Q: What sequence folds into this?
C-alpha cells in the first residue's frame, strides 16, 4: 500500500485504481483507512477511490503535539494530501469526527468538491464533551475493555468475535493515549454556525438506524442547516459505522448519489 510524503508528514493511504469520478474517504477518531476497504472494493469499475490514514493513525506519521488533532490542523493535513496527489475534482466522504474537516475543505475550496457525503456527522449546532468524559477518553486506549465497549457501541452490528472486529480493535489500540481526548477538544472548539449556509453543493447525510451517537433529530437539524443537503438516508442494520456494518448498503447509496446529474446545483453555486 502506498505512502506519500507531504509538507505535513508522511501519509499512508489505500487506493482503488481508476480514473473518474474520484472519491476521497476520511475516517473517524477510532478508525483508519482500513475501515473503508469494503467500500473501496464495492466501487464500480473505473471509479477511483482513495482513503488515507489521518496523521497520528494507522501507518501514517505519528506526531507528538496534541495540537495536530484540532480541526484546523487536520484540515491542513487534508489539503497537503490533496495537493500532493494533485486532486482537482473529488467527491468527499467523511465519517463522524472527520465530517468537520470535510466541511471546512468544502467551504475553502468549493470548486474542487463535487459532492459531500457525511456519515454520522456531529450536529450542525456543534458538540460539547462533558468535562467528566475527558479522563475516560484519556484512559480508553490503554484499557482494552473500555476500548472494546466503545468500538462495539460505534458498530453494534459488527460481530465482536469476528477477525475484522479484532483487527479494528488492534488498530485503535496503537493510538497515542491522548488522541481521543485531543480529537474531542478539537470538536468542542469547532463552531460552524451560519457558515454552513454556504454549503450549496450536493450533500448527502447518512445515519445508521441504531446510531446512539447521532440522534435522528440532530441529523434532521444538520440537514436543514445545509442548503445543498437534499438527502438524509437511514441505513437499517447499522449503528454509527455503516461502512463496517452494512458496506454494501452504504456503497449503493453513495454510488446512486454520485451518479446523479447535478447540473441544477451549478446554477445555485453561480448565484451565491
A:
Amino acid at each position: 500500500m502506498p505512502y506519500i510524503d507531504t509538507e505535513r508528514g508522511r501519509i499512508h493511504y489505500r487506493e482503488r485504481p481508476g480514473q473518474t469520478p474520484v472519491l476521497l474517504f476520511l475516517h473517524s477518531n477510532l478508525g483508519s483507512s482500513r475501515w473503508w476497504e469494503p467500500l473501496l472494493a464495492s466501487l464500480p469499475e473505473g471509479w477511483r477511490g482513495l482513503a488515507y490514514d489521518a496523521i497520528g493513525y494507522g501507518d501514517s506519521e505519528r506526531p507528538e503535539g496534541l495540537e495536530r488533532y484540532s480541526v484546523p490542523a487536520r484540515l491542513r493535513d487534508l489539503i497537503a494530501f490533496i495537493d500532493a496527489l494533485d486532486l482537482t475534482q473529488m467527491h468527499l466522504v467523511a465519517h463522524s469526527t472527520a465530517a468537520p474537516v470535510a466541511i471546512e475543505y468544502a467551504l475553502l475550496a468549493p470548486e474542487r468538491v463535487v459532492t459531500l457525503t457525511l456519515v454520522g456527522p456531529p450536529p450542525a449546532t456543534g458538540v460539547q464533551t462533558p468535562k467528566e468524559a475527558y479522563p475516560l477518553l484519556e484512559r480508553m486506549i490503554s484499557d482494552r475493555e473500555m476500548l472494546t465497549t466503545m468500538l462495539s457501541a460505534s458498530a453494534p452490528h459488527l460481530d465482536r468475535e469476528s477477525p475484522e472486529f479484532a483487527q479494528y480493535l488492534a488498530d485503535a489500540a496503537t493510538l497515542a493515549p491522548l488522541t481521543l481526548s485531543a480529537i474531542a477538544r478539537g470538536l468542542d472548539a469547532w463552531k460552524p454556525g451560519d457558515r454552513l449556509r454556504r454549503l450549496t453543493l450536493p450533500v448527502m447525510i447518512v445515519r445508521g438506524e441504531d446510531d446512539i451517537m447521532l440522534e435522528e433529530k440532530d441529523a434532521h437539524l444538520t440537514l436543514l442547516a445545509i442548503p445543498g443537503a437534499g438527502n438524509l438516508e437511514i441505513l437499517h442494520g447499522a449503528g454509527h459505522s455503516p461502512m463496517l456494518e452494512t458496506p454494501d448498503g452504504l456503497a449503493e447509496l453513495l454510488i446512486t448519489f454520485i451518479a446523479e446529474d447535478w447540473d441544477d446545483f451549478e446554477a445555485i453555486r453561480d448565484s451565491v
